[in-house]
Amino acid sequence: MKFNSIEFLVFFPFVATAFFLIPHRWRWTLLLGASYFFYVSWNPKYVVVLLVMTVIGYVSGRALEQQTRPTTRRFILSLSLLASLGILFFFKYSDLSNRALHSVFDRLGIGYGVYLVLPLGLSYFTFQTLSYILDVYRGTIPAERHAGIYALFIGFFPQLTAGPIPRASQLLPQFRTVHSPDYELVVSGLLRMTWGFFKKLVIADRLAVMVNTVYGDPTAYTGTALILATYAFAFQVYCDFSGYADIAIGAARVMGFTLQENFQQPYYATSIPEFWRRWHITLYNWLRDYVFYPLSRALRRSGFASDQLLALALPPMLTMLISGLWHGINWTFIVWGALHGTFMVISVLWSRANLSLRWPFSFPPQILTGLKIFFTFNLVCLAWIFFRANSISDALYIIQHLFVTAEINASLYDLMPSGWYDWLIAMLAIFLMEVVHYNQRKYGSVREVVRRQPVWLRWSVYYALIVVIFMFGKFGAGEFIYARF
Amino acid sequence: MRKFFAKASTFLLGIVLLFNISGTLADRIAPLEDWRIEHQQRVESLQARRDVIEAVTLGNSHSDSLDYSVLGIEGQSMAFAAADLFEIEKYAMYLAAELPKLKTVFIAVSYYSFSWDNAAFEPYRTRRIRYYSMAPVWSPIRGDVSNYVLGKLESFTHIMSEVRSDHWLGVWANLERNVSLENTSPYDGVLTTSAWGICPHYTAEQLEPHALRTATRNVSDSLQMAIVHSRLESEAYSALARTIEALQAKEIRVILFTPTYYEKYNKYFIEDGSSIIEDMKGMLDRLQQTYQVEYYDFSRDREVVIHPELFYNSDHLGECGKKVFSAKLLKAMSDNTQK
């Protein structure tokens, strides 16, 4: 089931209402059942993968807690990591796996008509399982004894298919807390969900048409079209993914749960490291805690001083490469990760060397910040070209032809189904989003600003947002981009 | 909790009211789906003439090939765009109970009728919801409860009139021009005088790309629907079989027919979907044998397929084509009766 489906509009109110109507001791059963129903409605067969991953995490956690001998614990850890990552790689390499399975069955003379696809949300619940196992191994959290609650932690439907990737220490205790219906939380959650739908349906799916057209056959375009498509993709991917996070966080909030924020206006970052502290925060934190820090420590233990080039460059580069690989086994993602790794390394080296640009005149701080934001945004967009392109050669073509022609020609309107009208809606919607972003920076929470208004104004805002979504949203358009990973 | 439910109900009521007003206004200013308006008119006409109607046509838009003035029967088409056999079954049951003088039901069977299920995926699923919202049927098609609920909800919330495929561009344009048009997408064919009279039709140049586009889409959608809905063919067959059985039990004559398609449509459909046609013929043979139901296949009528003047577009007969086709069907029916 997709968040942007009619089924979800029926499913969610039903689950949320039932959640508050039944006694606390049965709520985990309801949520677990609803989460598995949510998953099964996508593809019933692949629920087995979710179940297997849940069993691996649960059994490993319990075994790690019971064992005291370091060698046994290490063995259990290695086995569970191998099993979890094995499943992840098996499906991520589904093309290769399909060919291997078919060749084996062909040799055995058995007809085998199954073609594997990547199970929805596999990368998310694998990383969730890995972090749980590693935390139990490190002793930072106790193993969860209740198999049902653990299964719910892995399969909790708001975050199941595209994150945020929660930590056990943050989410598991919430399933034991008694949640009473809270009017403010419900309204705030619903508003957050509505905002997510706005970003996904009005902005992301509208821009997707134009991006898909240009990136589907980039050699047919040059200059302005390629630049516009790349900027459009930057907004599409942000609105798509952060829209999902808004819906997930909002849905959880309605029922009283708190999921970690996944975005913090990333395109306002003044450097690439800052961008990564604002973009896909839960993945970045995961990689930081389980790849970057351990690797840095390992390098130091191996005798590398913290200011040596390898000790400085290897952890961010490797972390970003893994981030690229997490998205898919594809050269475009690897180059995307490598590019971000390179930007990170340059940034680290730059700040270590305490370099700063010397200008013959001084910029006002706002202008300087603006320039930094603009520069960072364009570096991110450069990397997005590889992320979105169908192949490395497509990406290279786009980069080579970005500035071939600069004039805006009439055919650009044709890149959207309704021409200028679609452009106008997209621009106005992005403008509205930026107004909200501005208010968030200025006042902290837009919800709070709205909450202080008289009821007629408050409700008018809610109605306007809903009507705008229904009037200008692209319904039935497509999956969330990050649900593919 | 009580306070919350009271507020939530009031809020939802406001939304419903807002959607009803704006959706109805939008539909009046710039109607988008002609078939919906046409169908509403047909329902009204049916209700007004319920005591005299002797025949009805059911099926998708291909069913509209019949011209009752040529057939000389008091008839009414209740066809609507992209209708599938599951929807037809429901509608037929309703009409059989509703029309006291009903003697004949014509059902059009297209090449892909047995491999078509609107519930399979978008945008057809929206049509299924529309069908429930418009058709006077009071139970869902088997296994289709969610669409049924949404369809019945739609009939009083008008949410789907709010969600317009033109994203309200047509409404703003018409408001600006201060006009209330009945049709925002006028027919782009030509009007010529021929041996059959004054015929609005597509030219050969327009028919060729239309045929390629439509045949390819119909074949591809049918194949995808068969993937999404396992056992689709056998279930669609059963739906039509049940329809025939129920109508025959009420002594209503059932006539199945396939109208004529433009030659290029046939060519392109056969290129990609010959197996779909073979399966359809096989199913119709079984139905004829089991229920002795009449079936008339004019899909490749040599006297018609080559004349662009007779085609509204590649898979729909135009006004002149309908007359020609209806005359041919009438003759085939009377020949069959004499046998």
Structural commentary:
The complex is a heterodimer of chains A (485) and B (339). Chain A has 485 residues and is mainly alpha-helical. Chain A has two domains: 6-179, no CATH class; 185-472, no CATH class. Helices cover 70% and strands 0% of the residues of chain A. Chain A has 20 helices and no strands. Chain A has helices spanning 6-21, 24-40, 47-66, 70-92, 94-107, 122-138, 147-155, 157-160, 168-171, 183-216, 223-254, 272-278, 281-301, 309-327, 331-352, 365-388, 392-400, 420-443, 446-451, 455-472. The mean pLDDT of chain A is 87. Chain B has a single domain (2-338), classed as 3-Layer(aba) Sandwich (Rossmann fold), CATH 3.40.50.1110. Chain B is 57% helix and 11% strand. In chain B, the strands form three sheets. In chain B, strands 2-1-3-6-7 form a five-stranded parallel beta sheet, with helices on both faces. In chain B, strands 4-5 form a two-stranded antiparallel ribbon. A two-stranded antiparallel ribbon of chain B has the order 8-9. In chain B, strand 6, helix 11 (263-291) and strand 7 (294-297) form a beta-alpha-beta unit. In chain B, helix 4 (85-98) packs parallel to helix 10, helix 5 (124-134) crosses helix 6 (145-157) and helix 9 packs across helix 11 (263-291). The longest helix of chain B has 29 residues, at 263-291. Chain B starts with a helix and ends with a helix. Residues 180-184 of chain B have low confidence and may be disordered. At the A-B interface, helix 1, helix 18 and helix 20 of A face helix 1, helix 5 and helix 6 of B.
